[in-house]
Design a protein that fits this description.
There is one protein chain. By secondary structure, the protein is of the alpha/beta class. The protein folds into two domains: about 5-55 and about 325-430, Aspartate Aminotransferase, domain 1, CATH 3.90.1150; about 70-325, Type I PLP-dependent aspartate aminotransferase-like (Major domain) (Aspartate Aminotransferase, domain 2). About 40% of the residues lie in helices and about 15% in strands. The protein has helices spanning about 5-10, 30-35, 65-75, 90-100, 115-120, 125-140, 160-170, 195-200, 220-230, 255-260, 275, 290-305, 310-320, 325-345, 365-380, 410-425; strands at about 50-55, 120-125, 155-160, 175-180, 200-205, 235-240, 270-275, 285-290, 360-365, 380, 385, 400-405. The protein has a seven-stranded mixed sheet, sandwiched between helices. Strands 9-12-11 form a three-stranded antiparallel sheet. Helix 7 (about 160-170) links the parallel strand 3 (about 155-160) and strand 4. It is globular. The relative contact order is 0.18. Bound molecules: pyridoxal-5'-phosphate. Pyridoxal-5'-phosphate binds near residues 211 and 239. Pyridoxal-5'-phosphate (PLP) binds near residues 211 and 281.
Length: about 425
């Protein structure tokens, strides 16, 4: 059984596609469930014996208690529709956070500055919706598109967060996959694409820290990318939703790099979220900041099809962006788990301490076979790397040798799970 086939067909036929794509064909968790169905889980390392879910990147640390208070204090807002651009207080909190986090010049966030909160910041119900709408807004803008319109290609890393592919296809775009494997430092290289392809690109998704590999682009790389996007006039959508979870230095950001390059925020959008930073994935609160022309286009699209962010949520979000103590605490908990992972797995299974994010990206030969064995023998669900990737034109899926392991549970359970995982993977051949 080759579960990659439907996706391969989807990718190869994308140019000739007459009907909408099957989103399930590349939705990793449907593919994982299909792989495991019919196989009962083995004894799990969890104290309650239930299967341990290490497949989904769902933060499980608790958000700070003041979130509940902020929601309750602003309960009047539940009977109002969300405002498309949110509240001035939320946009100002975001601008202050960006200024502090990335050392931006104060004049950037002043009225009329490159990052004027009224023109360059838009609240989002999590980064996902904004990332999805970025393709719709960029490709459907036609002649009105800031980059002149008529471009159809959407550049995305391979492996990729499934929303990039879904958005590209939903917008009628033509996905162009950029391999992000060990040879390229686990980051995609738009510079390596044919200049003619770059000229036809409307949009490029770039995730840093990268999901799944945890690689981080430094400022020099970000500047090169921005210069490339401006030269070929495509939109760069930087997915920075893991920016606050890191093991060493705080990752550089696209807005900072753009402002340092000159040219304001032209061609750049940066997506952020409280889901990972504040461990609040259920709150649905984030933002996009960047080129005001692109923000305008996104705003127009989101007014038509977006959910908006409810006013009580914006009030809670405002408080979260203004508090760093809980973020430091959250980050320290992940760092503790990475230290455990390094102790248990270091030197084996291609273990690499990721610079950012909360995933292990382990090289295990055949990720699909390993995931099945970990389920059958250890009651643990991990994601085969191939399910986040797709075949390149040469038939190679760069995710195939890997599994992605999300370190979302408490340290004791992570330690027990990784120890068990190491035993199963070591004994694989004899199973
Ligand atoms: C790479 C990446 N981008 C964006 C998101 C979306 O997160 P949210 O919509 O909760 O901000 C996720 C969530 O898992 C992700 O892994």
């Amino acid at each position: 059984m080759n579960l990659c086939r439907p996706y391969v067909r989807l990718y190869r036929s994308v140019h000739a596609m007459a009907s909408p794509p099957s989103f399930q064909a590349f939705y990793p968790f449907t593919r994982l469930n299909r792989l495991l169905e019919g196989s009962p889980p083995g004894p799990s390392p969890a104290p309650d014996g239930e299967p341990v879910l290490l497949s989904l990147g769902e933060p499980r640390h608790r958000p700070p208690a003041f979130v509940a208070g902020a929601l309750a204090d602003n309960a009047d807002g539940w009977s109002r529709y969300p405002l498309p651009r949110g509240t001035p207080g939320y946009r100002r909190a975001v601008a202050d956070w960006l200024t502090h986090r990335y050392g931006l010049p104060a004049n950037a966030v002043a009225t009329g500055g490159a990052l004027d909160p009224e023109a360059a910041i838009l609240p989002l119900p999590g980064s996902r919706e904004g990332l999805f709408f970025a393709a719709l807004a960029t490709l459907s803008a036609g002649r009105d598109a800031p980059n002149g319109g008529g471009k159809t290609k959407v550049l995305l890393p391979n492996p990729f967060y499934h929303v990039y592919m879904g958005a590209a296809l939903a917008a009628g775009g033509e996905p162009v996959l950029m391999p992000a494997s060990a040879e390229s430092g686990h980051l995609p290289e738009p510079e390596a694409l044919d200049p003619a392809v770059l000229d036809q690109a409307a949009l490029c998704y770039f995730c840093t820290p990268a999901n799944p590999q945890g690689a981080v682009a430094d400022t020099a790389r970000l500047k090169r990318l921005i210069a490339l996007a401006r030269k070929h006039d495509f939109v760069l959508a930087f997915d920075e939703c893991y920016s606050e979870i890191y093991t060493g230095e705080a990752p550089a950001g696209a807005l900072q790099a753009a402002l340092a390059t000159g040219g304001g925020l032209d061609n750049v959008l940066a997506f952020h979220s409280l889901s990972k930073r504040s461990s609040a994935p259920g709150l649905r609160c984030g933002f996009v900041a960047g080129d005001p022309r692109l923000i305008e286009k996104l705003d127009e699209a989101l007014r038509v099809g977006g959910a908006g962010v409810p006013l009580p949520v914006l009030a809670a979000g405002e408080r979260l962006w203004r508090d760093e103590a809980h973020v430091a605490e959250n980050r320290a908990r992940y760092q503790e788990k990475f230290a455990i992972a390094e102790r248990v797995l270091g030197g084996r299974f291609g273990f690499r301490l990721p610079a950012g994010g909360f995933f292990l990206w382990l090289e295990v030969g055949d990720g699909e076979a390993a995931a099945l064995e970990l389920w059958r023998h250890g009651g643990m669900k991990v994601l085969p790397g191939a399910y986040m990737g797709a075949d390149m034109p040469d038939g190679r899926n760069p995710g195939k040798p890997y599994i992605r392991v999300a370190l979302i549970h408490d340290a004791a359970l992570v330690e027990a799970a990784l120890e068990r995982l190491a035993v199963i993977l070591t004994n694989r051949k004899s199973l």
